[in-house]
Amino acid sequence: MIDQKHIRNFCIIAHIDHGKSTLADRLIEFTGVLTQREMQDQILDNMELERERGITIKAQSVRMDYTADDGEHYVLNLIDTPGHVDFTYEVSRALAGCEGALLVVDASQGIEAQTLANVYMALEHNLEIIPVINKIDLPSADPEKVKHEIEEVIGLDTSIAIMASAKSGIGMKEILESVCAFVPPPKGDIRAPLKAMIYDSFYDSYKGVVSYFRIFEGSVKKGDKIRFMASGKEFVVDDLYVFRPGLTPVDELIAGEVGALAAAIREVKHVRVGDTITLAETPAKEALPGYRKATPMVFAGLYPVETNDYSKLRDALEKLQLNDASLQFEPETSEALAFGFRCGFLGLLHMDVIQERLEREFDLDLITTAPNVIYHVNMTNGEEIIIENPAAWPDPTNIASIQEPMVKASIITPSEYVGPLMELCQDRRGTFVNMEYLNEKRVNLHYRLPLAEIMYDFFDQLKTRTRGYASFDYELTGYEDSDMVKMDILLNGESVDALSVIVHREKAERIGRPLVTKLRKLIPRQQFEVPIQAAIGNKIIARENIAALRKDVLAKCYGGDITRKRKLLEKQKEGKKRMKAVGSVEVPQEAFMAILSAEDDDD
Amino acid sequence: MAVSLYIHIPYCVQKCGYCDFNSYAGSRPDEQEGYVRALLREMERWAGRPELAGQPVPTLFVGGGTPTMLEGRHLAAVIAGARRLFAVAPGAEVTTEANPGTIDFEGDKLKLAYEAGANRISFGVQARQPHLLERLGRIHTPDQVEKAVAAARAAGFSNINLDLMYGLPGQTPAEFRETVDWALGLGPTHISAYSLIVEEGTPFYVDYDAGRLPLPPEEAEEEMFAEGKAMLEAAGFEHYEVSNFARPGHRSRHNQVYWRNEPYLGLGCGAHSFLELAAPLPNLGAPRPRLTASRVQGGAAVETAPGEPGQKYRFWNLKTPTAYRGAVERSDWPVEAGEVIDRPGEMAETMMLGLRLLEGVSEERFLNRFGATLDQVYGPKIEQLIVHNLLERADGHLRLTYRGLRLGNQVWQEFLQD
């Protein structure tokens, strides 16, 4: 059994692309957990999707053994954290299991919006922060300037900052030594009743639910009977694991350690992230405080293309929810799309990731409706209703007032782009708050913006207008009065509920016109003419026609062509099948998301 | 059981901009000679197999490429060889394709072909206007077309087809009218009028993609179709297939074999066949009765599994003349790959092909062939297509409406398997 004082639990926080995953890989390699040959690129990002996009979505852990210069043997638990604002909740869960954090800042880029957000969160959790200036071997690196920025902007002492290049393996030993020297060991009485906090879980078809936890007090052994304090369910521990980085069996884990357990748990619902595990024989009196529940901010309808896949979609959502408690869903019925689910996400990236995982891991063909935020609607009869779905928008004559969610946005940018960014924020109904200079060339621009306005390609616009130099982060600040209206889309004279969107009254036309144009381009020509209209109430604000298909015929089909022409027709038929028949109109999946890109499409 | 023959000649003077056929620009005389020898060897082998031995051959079609790229003696040898080795019926239709730019007006190429047994000739004409011929990459002039048709008549041909095209870049309805008028004046028995399809992998596709192919507007293309049809019908031609018109009694018998989904053997590089195999053929693998039209992968190894009687295949030969010749010269079957056509697959193809014919699919012939009525197999689909005014029933046939003729793909795909 290891001595608590030789355990170090730490995480790495960084802005996206500042080299977090590469650093994690190098540390793992350096401590010899895996040889280089065994390393998959960036092994901590082990979801296929994470590697492809170069992002971290789920918190992952790895345990490393390290003998420091002081001659002592240490166990280092590295908990990787997501970098994107959508996954702030995941970050806070991971941070709760750590005593220290490596703050990685790119030596040429300096502090970015997400760096700040994550640092503040780490400070809230009282973590010891060790600054790591990464990529110091790049020609454009200016480590001194970055150090200065960290001291000025965050107020951290940089005397212990480490100069590193994860890519070239520079500074790895120094980092590990600093972790041993500066990160405090975990506290917690080993002899007290077990208190272990579940921070993640997944379903394995052989082992059942595998729960990831951090022990705060007590210890747990293989064969112990455990209890989940929230559900009250009891199980016998079949296996205990640590992360190396795969699940490696151990016999016992003690306060301060992170690990996982399997206990033949078949029901996903018995294991809730944030719940406390204790021992059935000698239970703890109180559970740990748990996590603040992440609240979904963005809602969209998810529908199977094949109506028969409804229950398959429900099963898939349940499986995903197991290790993504922030995903919410409830059944929804649409006239156009039949049976599906209204799902709540933390943000657009989260939505994108869920959608892609459903399609890849569960082989589902999905239609996603345009995402929307939650509106608070005060009715003339005094009632307040919460709208997650445009289809449920009440009759405007019964509406007294409407409130929409607002965010406080922080944009860090080179000062020459302030003009274009202000224009963008203004255009998105933003209110200027203030602007602070980080140094003579970089500013942090603060705006109040409606959440709905940053959902539609705000980030792309931000990157375009600053040639990729600006970074962006936001936090929710509450609800504000706003003049919102429901815009309906009519195909062939019939309103399609799944295409309705909530827009600001003054922007309705500016959104409606390009949306209708975009739909005309997306919806293939049918055997008859199809008018597309955007309407507010009875007032048509935009209209276009999809001309009827006049000709669709293969001119030639002789002996040598038959197989090829048949395949061509089969492909055409397959394409049609992937569309949704709305009334008599075949609508492709992309059409339901058209609004996301309608605004910038002006040809 | 009757089997039709197709023989592929892969050579052309140059590739036309719209062409995606298996053809190659230029060839040396010794290359042609070697290719013709390989063709004859392939024919000899097939002649000894049970699928062909003693079976009547109602039609023979020499296509390309450009068969008239061959020297007269070679073209004649191919036709005569087929007639010697197979049971080509006395009244059989024997067609050769021809490019007006490859006819030796002083020589005897067409005469040799006719004397060897060809009795129908099909010229690629396309358009009357030199600027269109140039845009298409055709090697001939309108003048050569007139002389070629005259030469064909002089050689003995009376059954003459002219291929025309419409919907061409830069073409006006007036120009197409002029082309049809002129073509009718040449006295053909058959006219094919093809709407240009821009195929992937052709120079036209590259131009199209780059926005450099000024196709006529939809309305103009539609006008060309409607006017061409009206003019040809007024001149006594019957519109009998999507793109084909014939004087009474002169429909292409060979092409109707394809559209009625009847068996044929393709010879030469890249040629396709549709046959019920009675004995194994390498590269097709063992028949897999339960697989639906699944592609059976070709391989180098010769497989010896026997073909089950009654198993139908579509298969095709190695594509390039070099690979094809190589295989034949090594005494290998030059087959590249194929697919099993099971009963539902055969029904689907019967519909896809039969509904290209204006007479449509005969309800009785379908029943006799498959032991089930059209309604038993496709009832609800047919109903729906009739409601949409794409199909109609008449004279014991299910056929395209005029609207269906313009939206054929929308109809045919409905009969294909999911």
Describe what this molecule looks like in 3D:
The complex is a heterodimer of chains A (603) and B (418). Chain A is α+β, with helices and mostly antiparallel strands. Chain A has 14 helices and 33 strands. Chain A has an 8-stranded antiparallel beta sheet, with helices on one face. Chain A has a 6-stranded mixed beta sheet with strand order 2-3-1-4-5-6, with helices on both faces. The longest helix of chain A has 16 residues, at 562-577. In chain A, 46% of the residues are buried. Residues 41-45 of chain A have low confidence and may be disordered. Chain B has 418 residues and is α/β, with parallel strands linked by helices. Chain B has 3 domains: 4-257, TIM Barrel; 269-341, no CATH class; 365-413, no CATH class. Helices cover 39% and strands 23% of the residues of chain B. Chain B has helices at residues 29-47, 72-85, 109-116, 130-136, 142-155, 173-185, 203-209, 218-234, 253-259, 321-329, 343-354, 363-370, 374-387, 402-406, 408-415, and strands at 4-9, 11-12, 24-25, 56-64, 87-98, 120-126, 159-166, 190-195, 238-241, 244-246, 264-267, 272-277, 295-296, 311-317, 335-341, 361-362, 391-394, 397-400. In chain B, the strands form 4 sheets. Chain B has a 9-stranded mixed beta sheet with strand order 9-10-8-7-6-5-4-1-11, sandwiched between helices. Chain B has a 4-stranded antiparallel beta sheet with strand order 12-14-15-13. In chain B, strands 16-18-17 form a 3-stranded antiparallel beta sheet. The longest helix of chain B is centred in the first third of the chain and has 19 residues, at 29-47. The radius of gyration of chain B is 22 Å and the shape is globular. Mean pLDDT of chain B is 91; it is low at 286-307. The interface between A and B is medium-sized, with 23 and 45 residues.
